[in-house]
Structures are given as C-alpha cells and as structure tokens.
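Progress narrative, Year 2. Work on CBS domain-containing protein from Oryza rufipogon advanced from sequence curation to structure prediction during this period.
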Amino acid sequence: MMLLRPRFLSPSSPSPRRSPPPDSSRLPSSSSSSAPPPRARRRRRRAPSSSPPPQPDLRRLTSRIVDLTRRRQLPQIMDEVGAARRRAVDRGAGAGAGLNTIVMNAVLEACVRCGDVGLALSLFDEMRGPGGCGVDGVSYGILLKGLGIARRIDDAFEILESIEKDTSIGSPRLSPHLICGFLNALIEAGDMRRANALVARFRQVLYEGHSVLLYNLLMKGYIKSNFPLGALTVKDEILRQGLKPDRLTYNTIISACVKSAEIDMAIRFLEDMKEEAKRDNNPELLPDAVTYTTLLKGLGNSQDLYSVLKIVVEMKSAPISIDRTAYTAMVDALLACGSINGALCIFGEIIKQAGNNKDLRPKPHLYLSIMRAFATIGDLDMVKRLNKRMWPDSVGSISRSAKEEADELLMEAALNNNQIDMARGLLRRILNEKECFSWTSRVGMIVLNDPVEKYMIPFQETQPLHADLILEEVVMRFFKDPVVPIVDDWGSCVGIVHRQDCTKIDAPLLSMSRGPPLCVPTSTSVEHVIDLLLREKSEMVVVVKRGNMYEGSYASSSRPLGVFSLAILWKFTADATDIDGMDAAHQLQQDVEASNCG
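Result:
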C-alpha cells in the first residue's frame, strides 16, 4: 500500500480518502448539525503539521550524491553534505544526527569512486564515533572495496579479522557480499595471489549458498592476469563442488581461450555449451550475443574466414538479439580476414535495419574500419563515399581524432592510388587544421614505406651544372638552391655541390663536391633514403635504375633518373620557400628515429 503524506496535498483539494458525499435530501435542515464535520476535517489536516519533517529531504540528498558521484564531483558532494549538516545543527539536532547511515554510505561510495580513500577512512571513523550516525555492513563493504582499490591490503585484512572476531563497531556480519567487493578490487588489479589467499582464508563464508558467482569472479581475475587459461581450473572446481556452470561461466571461459589464442578450445566450449543446454532443456544456457562476439574477435585475429562465416550464419539463425556491438564484431572479423565484400554485405544489412531500429545505427568506428580497408587497396571513391556518409548516418558524437583519421585515410587512399597531387592537397588541408604532422602517423608511415621513385624529381628538372665550370660564373645559382648536382661531358652525375662548401670563387665546381654522389635504386623506400641522408649529412641523393645498387658510390653505367632531397619531401607538407633542406632534416629526424625504433 502506498502511503501519501498529508503535507504533499493541496489544502484546496479534497482528501483522497474521503467517502462520497451523502444525498442532500437526507441531510437535516438545521445548520448546527452540519458544523462539526468541517471542524473535524480541519483538525485532521492540522495534525501532521506538528510532526518533524525529514526523510524526503534525505532521500533527495542521497539521490543528488549518487548523481554527482557518476560525474566524479567529490568537492561538490562534500559542500552539499556540509550544508545539510549545518541545517541540521540549526534545527537543534546534533552534528551527526542530521544525516543517517544511508546518506553517509553514499558519501563513502563517492569517495571510493573518486579515488580518495583517505577521506573515506576519515568519514568512516566519524560515522562510528560517539556523535556519528553509525555504520553497518554496507559501510564496511564500501570501505573494504576502497582499501582494495588503493592497494592497502593489510588494512583491509585487519578490518576483516576484527569483523570475524566480532570486535568491530556496529557488529557487522561476515557475509559473501561484504568480502566480494574487496575480492573484486584485487581481481581488477590482477593480484590473483592475494585473491586466492582471501578465498582460502574465508572459504566457508564465501561458499554460502553454493553459487557460481564467486567462481565466475575468480575466472575474470585469471583473464586479467598473465595466465588466462587458469580459468579452466576454476571450472574444474565448479564441477567438483557439484555446481552447474551458467552462461556467464562459459562466456568467461571462452574469453580466456580467445585471449590465449586457443581458438579451437574456445569452439569446443561453445559446442559443450549448446549440448548441455539441449541435454538439460535449459534455454538460459544457450550462447548469446556476447558469446558469439567474443568468438568473432578471436577468429578475426587468427584470420579464419571460414569459421567467421560459419559463426555469422549461426548467429543469424539463433534465437538471439543481434545488437550494434554484435554487428560491428562481424564487420571487424570479416575485415581482419580480408573479406571486404563480406564486410560490406553486413554493413549494408546494418544500414537497412537501422531505418526501423535506431539502436542499430553504426558508430563512427565502423565507418573508419571499412575506410581503412579501402584506403589500403587505394579505392579512393569508396573512401570518399564512406567519409561523406559518416557524418549524417552515424550515431553519437564524432571526435576530433576520428575526423582527423578520416582525412588521413582519404590521403592514404590517394597515395595508394598514385594520385600524388591530390594527396598533397589533402595533406596541406590536414596541416591547416592540425597545425602539426607526425611522420610516425598512419599516413606518414605509408609515405616512408613508399619507393623513392614516387617522390623523386626527374634529373633534368634539377638543371645540373657542368663539373668544369668556375664558381664565379654560376655563383648566383647557389643563392637560389642549397644543393646542385654536377655532370660531366657524357651527362653522368659526378658529384653534388652544397652551398656551404662553396668557399673558393675561382675554383671549378668539381673540386668543391664531396666526392661521388650518394645513389639509391628506384625501389628504395623513402625511410631508408632519409636515414642515408641523415647518416651521411648530405642533402641530396641520386636515384638510379640499376637494381643491384642499393647505396654507395655512383657508377657511370647507372644513368641518373632523378634526385631526392629532404627539401623535396618537405614540399609535400609545406611551402619550399619557408624552409630549406637541412631545416627539414632537423624537423624530420625525430620522427624518423621514432619510426626506426618502432
């Protein structure tokens, strides 16, 4: 029965519990006989006004604390709790009498969630003090969980021992609920040694009711540790205790097998799960979307396309609800196996069903996953379409990092499609928006792994000078270009002259070159060429056709096809007039070194 407090009723409205009005024809005509009922009603309405106000205010305060806890606003919580205490003192209550244990337990939970275990301990001591509101089992459970998160294991065990010896204030009962919060904190931290010690110490208490929940918790701990297959030993213990594994048990075991890359074992447990559900006629044990999603992740990592397709067909025929997460797992697994067409089919199915079910609208992650696959094969048209449809068709907010990755995928697709000019324009647009560019990014690594032939300048466009020319005759050329190749009478490149080496105005150019030029074949990666330039402290390398020459001195039989310099690479991201070659070298050096380390 729902109780309605009279103070929430409007004075002008009739009482909800009043009986229907009697027939006016049966009432006496004297007005004196009808006077008492109104006075009685007035007395009934005034009676509650003398009762103390209270619990609704505390309920609202508790709800407010829970809401602020979700937003991690601990200072605001303490301010409002302090204000509530001051109001209680003004009403004549004690400093701790105004707030009850339920409210203070919510404050303790807020301290633990926000990571301030020291404040939680102070409040706990205040609650169990002489003027406090008192503590209960919930208070101890929250404090134990906080101590476990803060890795104050000894303090937590001291509290448990005091509860076990019945010497703690509040006389809490040692129960599985009290211990499980502390146990879960140890498991989340991956400390299975102390978690197993806690289970062994309080085995009789934790095994009350013979539930598999505790075992599922221990299996989750093994998954978070470096020995996920240890969850299988917990399953054996479940069977020894005469318990029945539930769906969560099997899902946890399958997740442990996937994390250990034991995909065949995971599939065997899936079959055991279905057989046991059929044998016991227990539909609650049948695989759900979580089971199949976990398997798809493992099969995608192992690139087993046949098994992925088999699981997808089984999911569609099973009596389960396939949500957005399950559809996304299908697409990711198919892409990991290289089946772009299969991923597109599932993606089209998602878009079709999202028209009737808004909860199936894909998130930007799904668009980016498919764009990565098409960018890798250089399908620029598909990347453009997906990038355009991601904005109106995806659900949720599109972060700045997602937008930047989408632009970089467009540039990657243009590069892999050999549309260098378009890629250069996209990169300049990215730079205008980001104001920075890292060569260790996805696009940067593609450029570094590309052959140098893709970015070289044809040799004749460099306007090489004859080696026998005197510097005085061509001195103005070096005010324009920091480095110039020189050739002999047969058009072969015999050296490279740097601006800083031009010290003798009446000397021939050949005497100021640094020896034979550095040469690389056309198939050499840009990354290797940059390493060579930085190592040899040169600004230009000659690209030749001979495939048997990787680097080193120039051979006259290898005709120069083009040149490559750091300034040329820098033109890909900035105006060449803003920076010369060696400045580009200094700015690229850190990214190249990071790439080599990777």
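The radius of gyration is 38 Å. The chain is about 55% helix and 5% strand.
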